Amino acid sequence: MKRFVMYRRGDISATHNEDQRNPPNEPQFEGVEFSDGKVVFHWCTGVKSISVWDSMEDLLKIHGHPEYDSELKWLDIDWLRDVLRDTKFLSLDEYQKLENIKKFSKVL
Predict the structure, then answer these.
(1) Cα(105)–Cα(48) distance, rounded to whole angstroms?
(2) Using CA atoms, how far apart are residues 5 and 59, in angstroms rounded to an integer?
(3) How many domains does the structure of the chain reveal?
(4) How many other CB atoms are there within 10 angstroms of residue 54's CB atom?
(5) Are 13 and 23 in contact (CB under 8 A)?
């Protein structure tokens, strides 16, 4: 399983009321992608719901919204990368390997 959150970094106030949006520094939704590719996510906004998707690709086709400066953050991988990056013993080569793992995980 891989946990994730989705942020909307852009201004969405013209298209979403206060029950439909969070500030840019708070996730819009959070979820998990299971080993078979199925995805479940939960809206963190004022109006809450849960939905199930066949794949992350399908979810992003509907809720990806690049026009809102959406940012998908994989929590487990990003957390590990951030901790290791801040560790003084991590070499540049090791950090680059972690960046490649992160890129690969977004493809899965």
Answers:
(1) 28
(2) 13
(3) 1
(4) 11
(5) no
CA angle 97, 102, 38 (to 5 degrees): 145
- At 17-60, the pLDDT tens digits run 888 888 889 999 999 999 899 999 999 999 999 999 999 999 99
pTM: 0.67
How is residue 97 written in tokens?
Answer: 């390997």
Q: In what order do the strands lie in the sheet with 39-43?
A: 50-53, 39-43, 29-33, 2-8, 70-74
**33 burial class (0-12, 13-18, 19+ CB within 10 angstroms)?**
buried
Domain ranges, residue 8: 2-107
